[in-house]
Write the structure tokens for this entry.
Amino acid sequence: MSESLTLQPLEGGHDCHDPQSPTATLHPQGVGRGCPREHPEGHKGEAVVVEPTSRQQPRTKADKSATTTLRLTEIFLSLQGETSRAGLPTVFVRLTGCPLRCRWCDTTYSFQGGETVTLTSLLARVADYGVPTVCVTGGEPLAQKNCLPLLTALCDAGYSVSLETSGALDVSKVDSRVSRIVDIKPPASGEEARNRWENVAHLTPHDEIKFVLANRADYEWAREVIQAQKLAQVCPILFSPVQGELPPAQLAEWILADRLPVRMQVQLHKILWGNTPGT
């Protein structure tokens, strides 16, 4: 008998061959299987009920959180340096790994390594910081399948959650309560071919699109994409200059000259603390 079966006494008589019975019956040891015949003296119609294994209790959310794992590069408290949330105290959860290799990436240290953590422990570490705003970033966080349950768990816990993603992976399954910050990679990034244009159809005014631009050619390309994809009707658009390659004032002048419906931004955290990891 399988150890997963639950055995319990059944009071009174029974019909061992009743096809409508939801349970199976087993006779006490030494009693034959001849159910149509009368039970031997002393049997008294007693049997044991075998409950189907499907009736076992389902796993709870807490059980799943304790066994769901992610690869974490770092978690820290800082001011949000970009997007419409710039300046807000934010807990950053930086997941490990990225399938892209953008030429100017400033978080290459997150491509490998990190530590394996459970969802339960990660949520506890976020809570320790005591702020309501959380940003899940990378690397490319969506490269880890358990990023999705992490985002949902953070929303369920009452946090205001944003996701920074390269735009190369499907964003349609991300919890609708999350603000998706989706990069669109220009030619100078070296990853233009990885743009997943299908993502645009899934975005809402709650989300944001970001272009990081290195030169005039990138700017003109982005301007054409905005028009062709009608992005201004989808969600807010962010333009950022590549640090050390495109002077912020130059990008600002181009935006003003063309009256583009975009928000110019610079990386506040780098102005405050430089290119230091964990800031």
